[in-house]
């Protein structure tokens, strides 16, 4: 049974037009939250927000652009009064290893997967600290820990650095009622896996996952619900593995 733990809360979920962002937005709305769904894909965002109902608000932001983040987040905060939960979930994948990584690819992947998480956090943290309550969840990845089985150098680096950002922010705001945690999924059944990996690559990965299947988006959203729960205030600076036993540490 879904607990109405977030009836007084407003959340921002980035990458909300994607598979994990949509599942997360839906789960937080089911818990009573109002969710600002951020993505670059305006058409899909508008359509999904309309489907999720009056507690879903679509906000188009290109997260590669620090000025756009600051301007749009500032306007949203003025309009809605404050954000209690931030899920930095937008991400782009690239599978190129170092030899074939271009400067542009490196910049883009780092901008979306890492820089945007800092800029979004900077926008919401003053209000969270003032109200002495907040939850930030960063979507990291197993690739940030193991160098990337199939993921490339820019992606793995961005996710490792996002875990380090999680620790740094968690330490900075721990005394202000704000927790900052991460989730490190591996191989969720999404187009990132089913379309960007060949059948052979998918099978090779499946052979290595002890649980014997890919993760489902709802299982990811459930971990977000746990980390944002009012009773999770003692969990901070943690990156929760969600990898079906692919890596024990
Ligand atoms: N799918 C997996 O197996 C897996 C595993 C580990 C980590 N992750 C991470 O989970 C997160 C979500 O992944 P997903 O599988 O739902 O991917 P997805 O591609 O379905 O969703 C990503 C979303 O981010 C948005 N986005 C991309 N660039 C943007 C930009 N410049 N500005 C705003 N939005 C932008 C896209 O439009 C998309 O809607 C990502 O951070 C990804 O790296 C996924």
* DSSP helix fraction: 40-55%
Strand order of the largest sheet: 3-2-1-4-5-6-7
Number of helices: 9
Number of DSSP strands?
7
Structural topology:
Blueprint: E1 10-14, H1 19-30, E2 34-39, H2 42-52, E3 56-60, H3 66-80, E4 85-88, H4 103-131, E5 134-139, H5 143-146, H6 153-173, E6 178-185, H7 191-194, H8 199-208, H9 217-228, E7 239-242
Parallel strand pairs: 1-2, 1-4, 2-3, 4-5, 5-6, 6-7
The chain binds nicotinamide-adenine-dinucleotide.
Model description:
By secondary structure, the protein is of the alpha/beta class. The chain has a single domain (10-242), classed as Rossmann fold, CATH 3.40.50.720. It has nine helices and seven strands, in the order βαβαβαβαβααβαααβ. The protein has helices spanning 19-30, 42-52, 66-80, 103-131, 143-146, 153-173, 191-194, 199-208, 217-228; strands at 10-14, 34-39, 56-60, 85-88, 134-139, 178-185, 239-242. A seven-stranded parallel β-sheet has the order 3-2-1-4-5-6-7, sandwiched between helices. Strand 4 (85-88), helix 4 and strand 5 (134-139) form a beta-alpha-beta unit. The model has no long low-confidence stretch (mean pLDDT 96). The site of nicotinamide-adenine-dinucleotide (NAD) has 29 residues, from helix 1 and helix 7. Nicotinamide-adenine-dinucleotide binds next to helix 1 and helix 7.
Key phrases:
single chain; 249 residues; alpha/beta; Rossmann fold; 7-stranded parallel beta sheet; 9 helices; 7 strands; globular; binds nicotinamide-adenine-dinucleotide
What would a concise description of this structure say?
The protein has 249 residues and is an alpha/beta fold. It has helices at residues 19-30, 42-52, 66-80, 103-131, 143-146, 153-173, 191-194, 199-208, 217-228, and strands at residues 10-14, 34-39, 56-60, 85-88, 134-139, 178-185, 239-242. It has a single domain, classed as NAD(P)-binding Rossmann-like Domain (Rossmann fold).
